[in-house]
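Exercise: predict the fold of this chain.
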Amino acid sequence: MSTIEKKSVKAGKFVNTEHVDAAIKNYKQERWVHNSKRLGKEDSLSVWYSVEELEDFLQKVRREGGDGVRMYFGAYDKEQAEVPLYAGRQTIVLVATKCKETPNGEVNKDLYIQSKSGNTILAYNTGRLCPPFCTTHDGGGFDEIGILLVDKGEDGMAII
């Protein structure tokens, strides 16, 4: 009897504080300022999920045969956001994926599952956005990582 060994596919890696600081700083300077100006309010800088809910999502992904998660950048509808304070702000949508063999090689495809209402994507969203909800575990404001003084041009300066 032969067994097929499933190879582990890893796309990311652990990074250090300097890497995180640089990525956040670049985002704030290159994207956040412009997004916020266009939106007319501060856009979100982060999305928070508890370990418990992420574990629940990953367990469901595994049960449904998924082997990965794609994180899509998105934005809530400006008029019909489920959470009114999220209206227009950016978010991260977690979507289960499954590796498929194609003539061109392996591809990670979004995973669709059968539900009561038909075929639907296996996805997770509506985490805690910051802003507007920027409290830390100790009740303070923004976390220290990534704090930056941003020049908003004619609109002045901002500490974010």
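Check your answer against the key: The chain has a mean pLDDT of 86.
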